[in-house]
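Deliverable D2.4 — example input (structure tokens):
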């Protein structure tokens, strides 16, 4: 898997990190240590999680032991991102349910769940405008999908994929008729 990770890092332009992935731990840990000492514990996207590493922390990283405050900062950042994704997924699921149940007896049930969501996450509350915008986008995307015969994530791709959606008879002998 390190080869796959290294390839991905190299494609992103993270050559130093890619090289670290390819080396065995005994050789890569001192390189990681040097990098965190100079880059101040930044993520691949350049966000500083911890800085001003002491000589002791750099030495500990060189033997493969991550500084505690750096490990905690990484864990906290991951936890925060996962929470954000979970809340976004819950909001999208509720908007999907509202769309699907809009003309059924279950709508009141879904509205109760939306109200509970809004109480827990007032910053991302599902408002009437949120629902209206969501429904307008869904109706527009549904019309495009029915017209094209496929639902695309990015409507900008319509012109590029339209030719692929044209009917082309196919012969069993491998040639188009």
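Example output (designed residues):
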């Amino acid at each position: 898997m390190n080869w796959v990770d290294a390839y991905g890092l190299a494609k992103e332009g993270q050559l130093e990190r890619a090289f670290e992935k390819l080396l065995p731990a005994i050789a890569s840990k001192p390189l990681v240590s040097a990098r965190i000492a100079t880059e101040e514990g930044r993520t691949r996207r350049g966000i500083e999680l911890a800085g001003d590493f002491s000589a002791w922390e750099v030495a500990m990283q060189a033997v493969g032991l991550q500084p505690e405050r750096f490990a905690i900062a990484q864990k906290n950042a991951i936890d925060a991102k996962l929470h954000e994704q979970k809340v976004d997924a819950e909001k999208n699921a509720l908007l999907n349910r509202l769309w699907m149940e809009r003309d059924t007896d279950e709508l009141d049930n879904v509205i109760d769940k939306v109200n509970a969501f809004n109480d827990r996450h007032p910053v991302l509350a599902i408002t009437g405008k949120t629902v209206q915008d969501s429904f307008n986008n869904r109706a527009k995307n549904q019309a495009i999908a029915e017209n094209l015969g496929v639902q695309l994530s990015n409507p900008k791709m319509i012109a590029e994929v339209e030719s692929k959606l044209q009917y082309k008879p196919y012969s069993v002998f491998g040639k188009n008729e």
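Residues 2-66 form one domain.
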